[in-house]
Model the fold of this input.
Amino acid sequence: MANDIKERLAAFEPSRRIAAGDVDLWAIWRTLVRRRAIALGVLGLSLLAGALVNIRTPRVYSSQATMIIELTEPEVLTNVRGVYDLGSGGYWNTKEYFSTQFRIIKSRAVAERVAARLGMSGASLAEELAALGPESLEAKVSGDVLAGVPESLKNRIALTGRDKTGSREEMVAALRAFDATGYVLGKIQVVPVRDSRLVNIGIEDTDPERAALLANAVADAYEELNLDQKLGFTRSAVDWLSDQVQDLRAKLEASEKALYDFKKDNNIVSVSMEDRQNMDSQTMSQLNQALTLVLTQRRALESKRKVIELARQSGLDADTLDAAIASPLIQRLKQSYSDLRQEQVELGQKYTEDHPKLVGLRRKIALVQQDLNTEIDKMLRSLDEQYTAAVDTERRLKADIDEVKGEALAINKKELDYVRLKRDRDNNAALYDVVIKRQKEADLTQMLRVNNVRKLEAALPSRSPIRPKIAFNFLVALIIGVLGGLGMAFVADFLDNTLKNQEQVEQRLGLPTLGIVPIIKSGKSSTHDTPDANLRDRYILDHPRSSVAECCRTVRTNLLFMSPDRPARAILVTSAGPREGKSTIATSLAVTMAQAGGKVLLVDTDLRRPRLHKSFGLVDAVGISRAILGEVPVDEAIVPGPVPGLDVLPCGPIPPNPAELLHTESFKAIYKQLMERYDRVIWDSPPVTPVTDALVLASMVDGVVLVVNAGQTTWQLASQSKRRIEDVGGRIFGVVLNSVDLEDRHYGRYYRYYYYRSRYTEDESAAA
Done:
């Protein structure tokens, strides 16, 4: 089987050309034209199926309600937001939020609200229908189970899409088992609008009014569910916040009282702990500054006293006194002392020591020095008093500093408890303020009833159905029909195992093609839908300038030139099966050879179904069968043919044992005798496959011409015939492809050459 498929693929013309890299569009076109009946049939069936689908498919209508889904609720009051902030998060949070909303739209919660809103509960409908009692007279007459039922109940039952045929009991049972929520849930379609916050809620139904009603009901139910959920969250938040406010108020009051008691116990009621600490810090700073100033003064007094003592010990040096004493009186006394000393020096140069001026001057100097020492002593006493006061002040300042430092340490020790109590009070106050604010916001949100989901456009009944898509279905049917037709055409051509052209003959059989013979389109037989045998065998005699005659002459030429050194004299014409045109080819070949010159004999050795005597209008009483049996000489059985140089030896009476006659010595003698008397002998034999007569003759003649009927003879049968002939030692000259339709483009330019040549010769004959 695998080998057979490979061989068919190798012989399949389009696949062979594609494999060779040569895509011949004409070959594909010829295949389609040849199999056009199959392709058109498949196309017609596909279009018919499309039409049936359009006719039998129920009309489905679609209605859509458009919703807007915002991330946050509208801010009706400034700075007041809902309990839950939906707008937080980035792209992925937003995407997850919208995906969640789409899933909520298709949830059972929404479907249950729709069923309840429209009164689609199966149990309630069944109870209402059953409560109406037995059918009315109108219902029995009309056969409608809902006749006499109120319109409101009819409309609600219609929403469920229940079948209204049958009895009322069946309707009640069907309604009781009906799952309204599942019915609605199965119809909801959510279609987000790209790059927007819009979403279409679609419903498909066979009734456009019902589709619009359900779509609007789903949109309203989703909007109500979203608002109820938000209000439910808000109410829960308000209740929880109220409880928290009570607890936080009690905690705040307790923390405030604890802080007050602590401040009262520690005498910091009037000021805060921070202020008390600041005051101690300022006092400490002031005391430190005063202490520093006193220390500086004390050290300055000590230094000044030491300088004065040193100046006194050094004899009241002017420079030292100027640096230590800044008293104006002392400075004047010092200047007087200096002037007197200068004057003493000047008088000492003029007078002696005992001179009265010098004595009086020395007395003045002593008095000035005495006054100066007295003033210096006063200065020293004043410095001692100032020094003593500075030391006392220093002592008191240090004591004050130690006292303030002790108080600061005590305050710092109490600060830990104070900070803890103050922190508790502040935290409780802050938390209390936040909770109070959120409680007020929640109360306002609950009163405002804002919603971030709203319906933008209501669903309207559709005028045109969305299914079936008539044009689309016809287009699909057309495409499927075209592709299926093409595929079936190629499959049929692939499964066709007949030999149709020269390439297939040479590829399949490995034999040369001697030529082709066009199909003879003449009269029709009354028993077969083929040209009459007599007219077909004599066709080239009646139409010598036809394409058939030209093709037969081509076969004759190819046959004669196959072995010019050893001309073929005994030629057997046979075929693989019956009705393939071997007798026509044998007759035509004999006629063309006789017309070319030479002596030719046409022998009818088809001892089972002879027909040459009918073709030439001969009497079948005498023939080769009687000559083999020795009843008549062979010369008496031979009759002149229709053209000069051609004789015909008919079959004669049909013997009961044809194969045995061909094995007799008498037949061999006749064969030898005929070969001696004629230049060429054409043997017309039975087919190879059914009987063995042709094999007997094939082993005797110079060569065999195998006739193949184009488009009828399978390559398996022809190959089997070739093998059987070669098995008996027969030589096959080649193949004649018979009954070729030259008007079929499948046979290519080579075959059309014969067609155009026949047209040319026929036109030339008509002109003559």
